[in-house]
Structures are given as structure tokens and as C-alpha cells.
Amino acid sequence: MKYAGQRLVVTLITLWAIASLTFFMMRAVPGGPFAAEKELPPAVLANLEARYHLDWPLWRQYLDYLYRTAVWDLGPSFTYPNRTVNDIVADGFRVSAALGALAIGVALVAGIGVGVAAAVYHTRWPDRVAMFAATLGISIPNFILSGLLIYVFAYHLRWLPAGLWGKPAQAVMPTLALAALPTAVIARLVRSNMLEVLRQDFITVCHAKGLSPRRVIFVHALRSAVLPVITYLGPLAAGVLTGSFVVENIFAIPGLGKYFVQSVTNRDYSVIMGVTMFYSALLVVANVLVDVAYRLVDPRIRL
User: Fold this and answer.
1) What three-state secondary structure class fits 256?
2) What is the CATH number of the domain that holds 132?
3) Is residue 59 part of a domain?
4) Of the four, 43, 57, 81, 263, which is 20 to 30 A from 250 by CA?
5) In this predicted model, what pLDDT tens digit does every residue of 66-109 receive, in sequence order?
6) Could you tell me the CA-to-CA distances from 18 to 125, 248, 278 in Å, in that order?
7) What is the pTM assigned to this prediction?
């Protein structure tokens, strides 16, 4: 209970700071949500500002924003008059979450497998190939990789569709584009920690007891080597979900990233602030779950 109370206080302070920073940064941007190439008549502009409470003093808008965020009423969208930000988040996040879950699953399975193989075959060709691939995965941005995948598999080979969402084949390329970087990072983390764990005394004892090499690696060594990967899961979840903003636009996926990019172009304040707060809350919750997972994997760690 003490740990939960401490984390709750830190979480609330963090979310308040993010909400405040987002609000004042949006208000500091020149122009407004109704700025367009053709100026609106003053009477029409005044009516629009009154409808969305933009004619209130700044301090009143700020307090109203904090209250609505606390009760999770993110307000109406300026670009989509008949939709609220809550509706946009609910509709778009279902797609973004599915894509993110696929990417994280691929990154964990492939990254841990490649890292273990590289550590077991240290200084041999599987290790060199794995680390070369990991270096490429870290070096190539996901928007560049997306273009390469579209050119090779959609345009040249015609094996996969170039975009949209709804069929299994349409999820292959965006998943690979999002999973490349975290797969490479996880592979390097697992490899370096496996090399350190395999030199420890308890691994020697396991071999002396006659345990099979597979059991020693996957039961005893991997459990200790995977702890840094658990630490990486919190930022990984946030990175994959926010990284999907660009990938979703490249592959024309109707996820939350599409709405966010459009809201930036249209200066839709409420959508920008709502999506920012939503992902901030996800990141905070993910970090708390990482701390709890630490305790489950290694009972020696205290919360």
C-alpha cells in the first residue's frame, strides 16, 4: 500500500505537469484552430470562440481543461464537429493498439531468440550475423524501412498490399517496420547480459549437476538475462505506439496516429492535447507494470 500510494502521487504530479506543459505550449503557438487561408467574418469567429470557450480568460480555460482532463472528458474536436476527442481516441486506439501489440510481440520473440543465439554462439558466424542485423535495425528509421518494404514487397514482388487495414496481409509490413528497432535493441540487451550470466558460478553449478544445456540456457540463464528487457518494456510500449504515428500515415492505417497528424495540421487543440494525455497516461501505467514485473521475475527485488 505504501508503494502504491507513492507511485500514485508521483503519477498525478507527472500527469499534471504534462497537461500544463501541453496546454500552455498549444496556446503559445501563433494562430488558432480556426485560422485558415480565408479569414472568417468577425461575427462568425466570435461565435465559434464562444462555442468552444476560447473567449474565456486563459486562467479559466486552464482550470476548465484540468477539470475535464481529470474526469476524462477531453472535449469536442474542432476539426470533426460531430465527434468528441473521447470518440476519436476510442476508435483510433483500437487499431493502433492491435498494430502495437503485434510489433511488441514480434520484437520480444525475435529479439530474445536472436540475442540468445548470439550469446550461445559467441564470436561465431551466428553472432556476427545477428549483431550486423541488429545494427541495421537500430540505424534505419521506421519511415525509411516502411518505404523499402513497400517498394520490395508491394511494388516489385507484389506479395503484400501497400496499405490499409483489416486483413492479415495488410498488417505484415507495418508490423515489421515498427518492430525492427525494438527487436534490435532487445537482441543486443539479451546478448550482452547472457554473456555475463553464462560466466557466473551458478551456471557452472548447473552444468556440474548434469542439467541439459537447453535447460541451463532457457530456464536459469535467460531468467536473469531478461531483466533489462523488462525495464525496456515501458519505454518500448510508448515508443512503438508513438512511432506508429508516422507508420500509420505511410500505410494509410486508420489508427490514432492518423488523427493526431491531421490534428497537428489543422491545429485541432483538443485532439492534440487529448492524444498527448492519453499516451502519457499509458506510459506512466506501463512503467508501474514494469516495476511489478521486476518483482515477479526476481523475488529478491523489492518494490
Assistant:
1) helix
2) 1.10.3720.10
3) yes
4) 81
5) 888 888 888 888 777 778 888 888 888 888 888 888 999 999 99
6) 47, 25, 11
7) 0.76
